[in-house]
Amino acid sequence: MTPVENSDESEDNEQMVNVAVLGYGTVGSGVVEVINTNHDSINKKTGDEINIKYVLDLRDFPGDPVEKILVHDFNTIVNDPEVDIVVETMGGVHPAYDFTKQALLAGKSVCTSNKELVASHGTELMQIAEDKQINYLFEASCGGGIPIIRPLNSSLTADEIDQITGILNGTTNYILTKMTRDGSEFEDALVEAQNNGYAERNPEADIEGHDACRKIAILSSLAYGHHVNFEDIHTEGITKITATDIKYAQEIGAAIKLLGTSCKTENGFYAMVTPGMIDPTSPLYSVNGVFNAIFVHGNVLGDAMFYGSGAGKLPTASAVVADVVDAARHLHRNIMQNWSSHSLELKDISEMENRFFVRVKGTVAGKIDEITEIFGRVEPISLPSVPGEFAFITKSMKEADFAAKAEKLADDMLGRIRVFF
Amino acid sequence: MTPVENSDESEDNEQMVNVAVLGYGTVGSGVVEVINTNHDSINKKTGDEINIKYVLDLRDFPGDPVEKILVHDFNTIVNDPEVDIVVETMGGVHPAYDFTKQALLAGKSVCTSNKELVASHGTELMQIAEDKQINYLFEASCGGGIPIIRPLNSSLTADEIDQITGILNGTTNYILTKMTRDGSEFEDALVEAQNNGYAERNPEADIEGHDACRKIAILSSLAYGHHVNFEDIHTEGITKITATDIKYAQEIGAAIKLLGTSCKTENGFYAMVTPGMIDPTSPLYSVNGVFNAIFVHGNVLGDAMFYGSGAGKLPTASAVVADVVDAARHLHRNIMQNWSSHSLELKDISEMENRFFVRVKGTVAGKIDEITEIFGRVEPISLPSVPGEFAFITKSMKEADFAAKAEKLADDMLGRIRVFF
């Protein structure tokens, strides 16, 4: 056989590719469901037959079709030379990290939806995969079902990406959309999201921005080609956003979204997770409810955006299974990923230039001179329904300069939100 | 060397990959510009050095940097064994077809932006590429810089796609956006588009929907896995859309877009290019100006959308160069494409079910009984600024049934537009 005939992608004889799924929770059971539901078309697109040989879970599932292939001991999987691909849908860093590393070292490709693990140990795990000429794939880790990891690796290769900004968390986007549509306060919208299954009982990872932080770290690592440490990313959640903030946003034709954003500037790279006001010129403006979207700007492509279901059992499973297909097509060949182990040093955001929406106590007549002295000429925004305060938007300035100016307002400043238009 | 070490993607030694560009027009010169501008990052992502060895054009370009590598005879390129990849940015079917076929038969991968050629001869050219274990890639043929071909081939593989709907033509979207914003008539908006370089002097291919037709044929072939003949697709352009139509659309909160759409139903596959009304629940609603977007629905993924610059020198070149990178990464290995030579038989649209916006002469009082008798109960829509007529939206019905009913209205029907909500 010549190397060409030996290529996986040109194989005419269908082979069996054996998969083990770690964790039979929401995403794991979704993966089993998708592979079963779309069995024929998936096998056709793979060129081989995908067979789920094992499902690992500590629990039993009496009566469930996976009962017969359920195992409780990871060693059964890692020691079985017939297993080609491991799907890790356990979440969390431990024991997912150990299982993933063992699987890769045993020559099995791993496909995961685990953003915590990719953000914290992705560099090491990708290196093992490259050394072993197998793959560590994580399309589902950012944006659920939205294809974004593979486009960054394989489609946007002609560009130098200089900005990536995403609505990366469905829970917070649902809450903010709800607050906008109903005029409700954060706490009420959160409770409703919890009751509708769009927010967890312990919602901290979502509402404090930690989830979006890991995702923008992963996306930025791929966009700029160097490892971005999620712990270096300035992160603010949406817990301080009020119904009044949203009223002002509506008045000025803006929407408030939780944005994970990073950019390449003359001074270096910045990244942050922050609530931000965007206007209708941004394609992210119309992304509502549990939908997610990722905006990318390339130096030759210009603007692009990828939109879809950011979470949910089947959309997330769709992305994991697409990785399984890709891993099966490249069983013993590493797919190049644009993410080097070299760390990208993020600049401190104090040097980043932004505009700010600011709410202050008092009346325009009584306060505008003081505001003008501190911030220069601004256009005051008053809402008849919100007496005793007004708002304005600053010109673009360094974060550090804004902080110094804001300090002068002391307790008169009722809130501030970054403005991205 | 083992096959694994022989893999292009794991090659550590950088090689020279020679490229020849056919046609130094807008896109061709963009390709040269992008490869030069982003030289370092492109080579890093390729793993090899991309070198433009030839540019083919009948014209001379004295003083242009390509002067030294300009050739007038295609044989120079096809007979040079050092040329690995041919970029075809000539447009049109001839001689692009002959050059592409010769290049592929000579073992050179071809990357193209030529939608006419892909729609008319893509099946044959892809088959030659597969037989030769090289690649015929055409990311730039649909949606300009928007990554959509590669996502369909490599990312949406877990799904059975049941709908694909795109705003696929920048010229018509610019014209419709202009008409919406200014209240202008089609002819005036067209002249303005021509003056601003957004429409050609001979705009027929755009405004009559032929361009969108080829694009939806290509996308549908990939989405459903079988060749869709563009000549089978019912195609209507935007020349009959008036300022009054747009006034009505605004009144009911809808936007009119030229849509290329295809879907899989219980009865079979349908495809058409048609102006259509969409409402804000569609992510395509906010896609304005020269931007394009492609909405895809998968049976497990749900809704997804890909948005970006649908035309323009650099965005289109960005997509072509991304193909060059992919071709270089897979120099002697065919990338699986989900497009079989088997033809997909489209159902006649007479059986397709749609809703219709209809404008009729007369007053609501004088006409509603007749309308109700023909179409059943409908909600009349009157605009004070448009006396002597009114409009309504039908319930969903077969195209053939609508045609029969519309015939009863005879000359009283002033127009009809399909409604996709």
TrEMBL record, chains A, B:
- What keywords are annotated for this sequence in UniProt? Amino-acid biosynthesis, Methionine biosynthesis, NADP, Oxidoreductase, Sodium, Threonine biosynthesis
* Residue span(s) of domain Homoserine dehydrogenase catalytic: 147-325
Please list the residues that bind NADPH: 115
Protein's name according to its UniProt entry: Homoserine dehydrogenase
User: Top-level EC class, please?
Assistant: oxidoreductase
What does the record give as the reaction this protein catalyses? L-homoserine + NADP(+) = L-aspartate 4-semialdehyde + NADPH + H(+)
Q: In which pathway does it act?
A: Amino-acid biosynthesis; L-threonine biosynthesis; L-threonine from L-aspartate: step 3/5; Amino-acid biosynthesis; L-methionine biosynthesis via de novo pathway; L-homoserine from L-aspartate: step 3/3
Q: Alphabetically, which GO biological process terms does the record hold?
A: methionine biosynthetic process; threonine biosynthetic process
Q: Which InterPro entries match?
A: Asp/hSer_DH_NAD-bd (IPR005106), HDH (IPR016204), HDH_cat (IPR001342), HDH_CS (IPR019811), NAD(P)-bd_dom_sf (IPR036291)
- The answer to whether the entry has keyword Amino-acid biosynthesis is yes
Where along the chain is L-homoserine bound?
200
- Alphabetized NCBIfam families for the sequence: PRK06349.1
